[in-house]
Amino acid sequence: MDNQALIESFIEFKDEKNIDRITLMAILEDSLKLVLRKKYGSDENFDIIVNPDKGDLEIWHNRVVVEDDELEDESAEISLTDARKIEEDFEVGEEVSEPVLIKDLGRRAILTLSQNLKMKTLEHDYANIYEKFKELEGEIVSGEVHYIQRNHVIIVDDEQNEMILPKQQQIPSDFFKKGETVRAVIHEVVLKGNKPQIVLSRTSPVFMERLFEQEIPEVYDGLITIKKVVRMPGEKAKVAVESYDDRIDPVGACVGMRGSRIHTIVRELRNENIDVINFTNNEELMIQRAMSPAQVSRIEIDEENKQVKVYVKSDQVSKAIGAKGSNVRLASQLIGKEIDVFRDEPQEEDVELIEFSEEFDDWVIESLHKIGLDTAKSVLAQDVDYIVEKADLEIETVEAIMTILAREFEE
Questions:
Q1: Contact status, residue 66 vs residue 80, Cβ threshold 8 Å
Q2: CB 235 within 8 A of CB 173
Q3: Domain-terminating residue out of 131, 150, 185
Q4: Sign of CA dihedral 95, 101, 107, 113
Q5: pLDDT tens for residues 48-92?
Q6: What is the pTM of this model?
Q7: CB-based contacts of 290: which residues, under 8 Å, 6+ apart?
Q8: Cα-atom radius of gyration of the chain, to the nearest Å?
Q9: What is the 3-state secondary structure (H, E, C) of 359-402?
Q10: Is residue 348 in a domain?
Q11: Which pLDDT does position 69 carry in this prediction?
């Protein structure tokens, strides 16, 4: 390989990778200096001239002429005899500039040069990809499913950049086929060594925010602001929205006539049930709205411990708690306080749980006390699933407790 062949092949590579002229020159120069250091021990006495526009590459070795018996550093000095082989009139002390051809560096040096050029170009390519996608974190991208594994899916965009969608960032009901188009949000961009890894997410609240922006013009234009999104991906979500224009109904605008606008988002999220809520700074009113579709009778707020007791009628308990506790859990996340649901019924004669110490172990009673259940009726007012989750008890244990307590009042 000669100098011109090297630069021509590299220019083709540069055009393919879309590398600018200055970067090309820097990569070539750095790579050549590495080869020169390996062969001559130093690159200080060399001039490298790269002109990719003309396809020129010149390397000049600069050395000072010394007497034959005084030659010590062949990288910086040349003997008078060797200098006069180049030009007969050279004298001691003068500087000799001699061209160096790539082919004269040897096969090993050429191989090192080739490998280093590829490595430097890839590093540049990786850096560009990292910077590009780092700026796009939090934005929606779409791509084609390229490869499916048990723990992740590889998706490629139009420029063949690979993006990874981990299993934990997929909606539980997601099912992908090779070649299909998938939308997701760029969750994070990290470096694995020098190579950027673009991690996507379909479970992130940000994904839902971006879908609202894409599908609802008022959100995109900033007329409606999304204050907060909380999700149980694929199951249920609550979205608090607000408009500073009194003429706009933010909930109605997001849902659309007969749900026409939000339907596209629901379908994209595998039929995730979305409650759109009108945001307010009135905390009690916000809690009432967050508990939708349940109707709240009264609310007690413990600001110090960031806990809320919500009382609902008997026929509203299941709505308030929701399937698998989804409604009360999401409402808690939306307002930033722990919400406990209680039946709002007339106070009748009650029995302290401690009175049942013969029927229940002390640790069971203690577990119920820790979640604020001190009496028989306070336990009976709760849903079985709720107590199982909050008190960390087995469902069989809770059902047995309920049976014993209910029998007390039947008697």
A1: yes
A2: no
A3: 131
A4: positive
A5: 887 766 656 788 889 998 888 888 888 888 898 888 888 888 888
A6: 0.66
A7: 238, 240, 277, 330, 331, 334, 335, 339
A8: 36
A9: CCCHHHHHHHHHCCCCEHHHHHCCCHHHHHHHHCCCHHHHHHHH
A10: no
A11: 86
Contacts of 252 (CB under 8 A, 6+ apart): none
Domain that holds residue 121: 3-131
Q: Which residues are registered as beta bridge partners of 60?
A: 47, 99
Residue 287 to residue 302: CA distance in whole angstroms? 13
166 and 189 in a single domain? The answer is: yes
pLDDT (0 to 100) of residue 265: 95
Indicate which CATH number applies to the domain containing 83. Answer: 3.30.1480
Strands in 236-243's sheet, in edge-to-edge order, are: 224-232, 236-243, 273-278
Instruction: Report the distance separating Cα 136 and Cα 134, nearest Å.
Output: 5
Distance CA 202, CA 119 (A): 34
DSSP structure class, residue 166: E
The torsion defined by the Cα of 250, 253, 259 and 261, in degrees rounded to 10, comes to -120
CATH number at residue 198: 2.40.50.140
The tokens for 38 are: 């390996």
Cβ proximity of 394 and 388 under 8 Å: yes
Element (H, E) at 304: none
Mean pLDDT check: name the lowest of 29-43, 50-64, 366-380, 392-406: 50-64
Is the pLDDT at 236 greater than 70? The verdict is yes
Kindly state the greatest CA–CA separation across the chain.
126
In the chain, the percentage of residues whose pLDDT exceeds 90 is: 45
Mean pLDDT of 307-318: 90
Can you tell me the distance from the alpha carbon of 266 to that of 275, in angstroms, rounded to the nearest whole number? 11
Count CA within 13 A, CB hemisphere, residue 93. Answer: 0
Edge-to-edge strand list for the sheet holding 307-312: 298-302, 307-312, 338-343
